[in-house]
Amino acid sequence: MMRSIKQQPFRAAVLVLVWGWLLFLVLAPNMLVVGASVMTRNPSTFISLPLNLEAYRQLFNPLYLDVFLHSLYMAALTTLICLLIGYPFAWALSRVEKNRQMLLIFLLIVPFWTNSLVRTYALKLILATNGLLNSALMSLGVIDEPAQLLYTEGAVIVGLVYLLLPFMILPLYSVFEDLRQDVLLASHDLGAGRLATFKNVVVPLTLPGVLAGVMLVLLPAMGLFFVPDILGGSRNLLVGNVIKNQFLDARNWPFGAAASIVLTLTMALLMFAHRLSKRRLGEEGA
Amino acid sequence: MKKLALAGMLALGLTGCSSDDPQVLNLYNWSEYMPQEVLTRFEDETGIKVVYTTYDSNEAMYARLKLLDDSAAYDLAVPSTYYVSKMRNEGLLLPIDQSKISGFDQLDPELTGLDIDPSNQYSVPYLWGTTGIGVDTADVTGEPVTAWADLWDERFKGKVNLTNDMREVFHMSLRVLGYPGNSTDPQQIEEAYEKLTELMPSVRTFNSDAPRMPFLEGEADVGMIWNGEAVMGKESMEALEYVYPEEGVIAWLDSFVIPKNAKNPEAAHQFISFVLKPEIAALISEDIGYATPVLSARELLGDEVAGDRASYPTAEDMVNAEFQTDIGDEALQVYAKYWEKLKSGL
Fold it and tell me: Could you name the domain of life of the organism this protein comes from (chain B) (predicted)?
């Protein structure tokens, strides 16, 4: 490994770039957030000394616990729906002909080229009372009066699923790609039925992808504050909304920072669990 | 709207690259609060390029300017009422040289020399307006809506719009209870919160991007709206009426200020003078529906605008009207706590 780095200046440059990126754009800002979270709130300078853990104590206020749990519920529901759609989708994707696969993945990624905020506004136009969906259903005679779709919890979930689904599909697709056909054939040869094969072979082998997908969906789902703002009519708060409110409206930076640290730590915990499970699976495989 | 804010940021990013531009004015303003025509005419007349960026709350604007860093170096901003005094006291503003502002003497004396800036050393009034009740008269039948308290009516379940503004929503609830809209008494604030929880099942959405939109989209039939938004909304929806509630509207005055880290205060002075020109002030008032403080401009307004009570209220409409004041940091925390409690519906 070391030798190859010396031999390839390009690779060294990439490593420097990646490490520089991580240090200055990931580690340093996060350290600033950690710093802000242990400072004291100050009305005129936002934050000041002395250092204390007051902001973290405030997090234990039952109100914020409730917001966190509600947020977790919305995010978990989003993740579950993404998984239910994404799992069969990824499986099917891995089964189509190679050339077409590339095209389908391309189509999956294309929406990313448009800013997610703009796409959320587009969803709003579709879901509004006199929006596309309602007018279509009414002209088809399915409903007589426009249904209230926008500014509901359902609209927020739809928005979150729409924005985050690709993050579930891509890691699942990569595990399904590695799932070798002969493993399944072997399972059948050894007398396992379809269900048993799925339960005992497919699920364990794709579990790392499931976990990766869950991680990539669950935490962003708690932070995408503009989705409840636009589609939920600024109701149905997520943790991301609380953080935004604390920074802008209440001007309580230490508290906002502490809330964001807790979110990051939850993420770290999940990643740790993911690694543990991967290692365990790896050992079983060996 | 946020879309516009986004476009503004994009414009900022694009022009940020070319440093050989002769002159640039960085204008930081509320969304949908300046007709494009005014900017174009200013650019044509002076050759100064306007980079227009928007915000949707005083809090957002304040948080951005407070940092005083280069990424937020605006030459002009438009804070509401008490934010002028707040920013002035915190030394965030540059003094405005009145000798460079032509048309200052044309301003309504009732809107200059206010407590927020007694000698207008730091601020020049841009527009003023009110937050009252919007009613979609096509969908609202029965008793007419005349008071904030009517929003609590059973018939508006799921059809009420509120502004996404903590102070305004509490102001409204405090007035319904007969308390001052700028209360700092935790007991009264809590009561206002309790009262608002009863309203929550009726609330369809909170909107401070463009409060007319929920009405136009058909989501809301009644609720809080800014007077100019009601005027703009009426253009595409005849049935939208603006009502001055009995308990009193929330009044505000938005003023031009020059932030301390402005790079081109000279252009800022030029822009203020330009906007105070009677024909420009009249154009703005006609286009976005808020009232101009430039007296000589009011004579240029068409009867339709000057006679529109939504834009230019009568003395009777303004009975019980209250300006928002700085409530101090301690009370702000109390409001913030109940605001989040209210929004999370817990």
Answer: Bacteria
For residues B15 and B107, state if they share a domain: yes
Any domain includes A151:
yes
Which whole number is the average pLDDT over A74-82?
A: 95
Query: For chain B, what is the domain count?
Result: 2
The rounded Cα A44 to chain-centroid distance in angstroms is 36
Give pLDDT, residue B70.
72
For residue A252, the chain B residue with the least C-alpha distance is: B333
**A14 in a structural domain:** no
Res. A119: pLDDT tops 70: yes
Average pLDDT over residues B292-296: 93
Are B115 and B23 within one domain? yes
Among A48-52, B11-15, B171-175, B233-237, which stretch is predicted with the lowest mean pLDDT? B11-15
Torsion from C-alpha of A130, B212, B79, B277, nearest 10 degrees: 120
Please name the residue of chain A whose CA is at the shortest distance from the CA of residue B4: A118
Read off the pLDDT of each residue in B185-206 and give the average, rounded to a whole number: 94
Tell me how far apart the alpha carbons of residues A66 and A64 are, in angstroms, rounded to a whole number: 5
Mutate to test the interface with B, among A249, A252, A253, A255 (most CBs of B within 10 A): A249
pLDDT tens for residues B129-156? 999 999 999 999 888 999 999 999 999 9
Are residues B137 and B200 located together in one domain of the fold? yes
* Residues B101 and B246 occupy one common structural domain: no
Stated pTM of the model: 0.80
Residue A30 lies in a domain: no
pLDDT at res. B19: 45
Q: Is residue B73 part of a domain?
A: yes
A chain contacts of residue B63, beta-carbon cutoff 8 Å: 247-248, 251
Per residue in B27-71, pLDDT tens? Answer: 999 988 999 999 999 999 999 999 999 988 888 898 888 877 777
Structural domain count, chain A:
1
- Closest-CA residue of B relative to A45 is B66
Residue/partner pairs of A199-206 with CB below 8 Å, 24 or more apart = A204/A281, A205/A175, A205/A178, A205/A179, A206/A87, A206/A172, A206/A175, A206/A176, A206/A179
Q: What is the CATH number of the domain that holds A227?
A: 1.10.3720.10
Residue A50, preceding peptide bond in cis (omega within 30° of 0):
yes
Residue B63 or residue B193, greater confidence? B193
Residue B296: pLDDT band with limits 50, 70, 90: very high
Strand blocks (E) in B104-221: 124-136, 160-162, 203-206
User: E-strand spans in A68-225?
Assistant: none
Q: Are residues B212 and B333 in the same domain?
A: yes
Assigned domain for A38 exists: no
Write out the E strands in B202-263.
203-206, 222-226, 240-243, 250-256, 258-259
Which member of B203, B217, B333 has the closest CB to residue A129? B217
Asked whether residue B311 is assigned to any structural domain, the reply reads: no
Q: Which domain holds residue B69?
A: 2-128+253-306
Domain membership flag for residue B262: yes
Please work out, in degrees rounded to the nearest 5, the angle formed at the alpha carbon of residue B185 by the alpha carbons of B180 and B191: 80
pLDDT given at position A111: 87
